[in-house]
Amino acid sequence: MEPLLRSIPLGLKNMIMSTDVSDLRSSCAALDLHFSTSLLFGQLLEQLVNTFQSSCAKDASVTLKSKLDGNTALKISKHAEALSAYTKALRFAPYSSKEEDKLLLATVFVNRASILHKLKQYEAALRDCGRAIDVYPSYSKAWYRRSRIKFDVNNLEGAVVDMKEALLHEKTGSGLKQIENEIAFMETKLTTRSLPSDITTQLDLELKTIQREGLPDVQRLRLHWSDERGWDLYTTEQLDIGSLIFQEQAYAAIVLKSNRDTHCHYCFEVLPVDPVGCCRCAIPMYCSESCRDQATAMPVTQSLNLDENHKSEVKISESPPVKVHGEHIHECGGCAWSAVLPTEAVLAARILFRITQRAGILDNDRSPKVPGDTPCTEDRSDRQYYLTRIRMIDSLCSNFDKLSSNDKLEMHVLGVIVAHCIQQSSNSFMVYGTKSAAEVASKLVLLIAQTRVNAMAIYRMSSPEEDLNSTAGMAFCTVEQVKVAQGLFLLGSSLNHSCVPNVHASFKLRCLFIQSVSTISAGSSLELCYGPQVGHMSHMERKNTLQERYSFTCKCSACARVSSSDLFLRSFRCTKQGCMGVVLRPDLCDFHLTYSERLPPAVDEEFISEEHGCGDSSFGNFSKLPRVYPGSCDQSLGRTCVSEKDFQAFTYTYVQKDAVPDTDFIESEFTKLMARYKTDGRCPDCGSPVDVETAQEIANTALSQLQSLVEAAVSNRRCFY
Ligand SMILES: C[S@@+](CC[C@H](N)C(=O)[O-])C[C@H]1O[C@@H](n2cnc3c(N)ncnc32)[C@H](O)[C@@H]1O
């Protein structure tokens, strides 16, 4: 990416960096034209779309090597190692109608089943045997293994049936002898024992089913437009605390690169011990065939009939099953682009894929924003509903014009790369109509920007890792929230941010659940926290985080007034042992600055700074501020010390007054308090010099050490209680 960025001529760079959303077509066309003669771009594209060079292409030699690794590990009882080697072997195993490919696949499934059997993971072991039988029905060892597992779970009848099937397919003399002995032994058992229930019959019931896409209940929700915050979702009815306001399936979603080997690429749950891979490429892992089929919009049986070059996929793609979006299929086929490009670019491609799949066309001109009070869904008949939703993609805000010039440039390069990757991937079936790569790229650039602003992080609670080499089981005590995927939820993305949110988001499979965390009165906006929250971060940190991450300045109710937590978050105790003095950080004045601009100039002339005015315009009317505040510009003057008594008196009044106190009250109290102190950098109680920056550094170091300890403890995942 870096060399490609460097290769862009300065004039073109400047044009792209200063482009706005209405110029995207011309800026993308100019970049596309430049890349069309660039050797570097051609080479990169070749790497991204060439199935033969790709690291994610299916490769029987990797399967054979991993299978051998698994066998070696098994011999020395390294079960966990053997299991992951066989899973890797399956990941790379080609799915084709060739005899040798089918046999290889079936062999590895049976090998993995043997380990799972040893580990008493009966359900998973039975599933793997079933997979082997589906792929290669005359593979005796698959029937044999399944019979042994059924025997161990007391399904003696099933065990005998499978063993007899194994006998039918066995070709070696010694094998036949062994199977006959097994049948005789099992039949004796069968006549002497009454049988408990069959675990295998329960399996089907227990198999996870993914919720079908349902329409959220949005009857009581409306969208409202304001120039300050764009679209805002509000309720027409009062909502009680804890109400489920709506639930919504992801429009498009993608697992994070860091979770590719641990979570299902479709439902994002933790992978079981017997994950299944994609039939065409070696990247995605799914928890079940059901997830795989939904991600690729193709049943396994069809996958097995693919010829070597996967050409038949094109036929399937011409008539994708209704209601199944198969978001992985268009980017799959053994080429690397979707595996190596940044997640947000691949997610944007998935969104584009879905738009074209639904609408049948790619059209940039649809639906300009219409500010006003608009119901989210007027007509919920299927077609109209989806048209409304597609229209909403165009109306998702991108904050494009507020992006940094480097972000704009990077998004342009990604947009052009992805547009070409999609067009050159052998199995791509996006419908572009008459659109050129540059036009597709301009749509992608906008989608990447929209994805950045609107996509939500999908979280999972971490679940216990089983110790596969121990059959004794283990106690588990660490539970943590892990960010596993990124998804776009159309209705969810109309929720604005607040640093004191009134709704909470949670996820199950690919579904978003929005619940109220307080009583929300009719007509109020539903506000979610995008991350920075009062009590966790100071006003300045919240402001910077939102600006950096989402390119907007927060206009929520909490940022429109002083929050008591800011005071606590930005203060230190004097570091001298036994001293109770409290030292406030210089940047505590950040919120003071915000408010003082709205108030009459500071009254006490003694504290008006003349000599320390730094001329930094970001500090607004700096010369009118009390002298105690210039610490933010000049650190040597920035020690604002307050005696414990005053601090307590102030915070007491503050907290007692109201949890979200009256701004003017706080402002005047705070100004009065600050005005009593000089910036001499000393603790007011003991007179020791106080270095707030050093104190902050010490606190940060201690925090990161603590964090490392927690991480070490979590990764160890052992706790005895
Ligand atoms: C996920 S969208 C929310 C819906 C958005 N208002 C719209 O019109 O599509 C996030 C964007 O909404 C705007 N926004 C959200 N919360 C805001 C807030 N508290 N203050 C100002 N703008 C906000 C910002 O432009 C932000 O990038």
From TrEMBL:
Residues 219-531 form the SET domain. It comes from the Eukaryota. Pfam families: TPR_8. InterPro entries: SET_dom, SET_dom_sf, TPR-like_helical_dom_sf, TPR_rpt. PROSITE patterns: SET (PS50280). SUPFAM superfamilies: SET domain (SSF82199), TPR-like (SSF48452). Gene3D superfamilies: 1.10.220.160, 6.10.140.2220, SET domain, Tetratricopeptide repeat domain. PANTHER family: TETRATRICOPEPTIDE REPEAT (TPR)-LIKE SUPERFAMILY PROTEIN. This is SET domain-containing protein. It comes from Marchantia polymorpha.
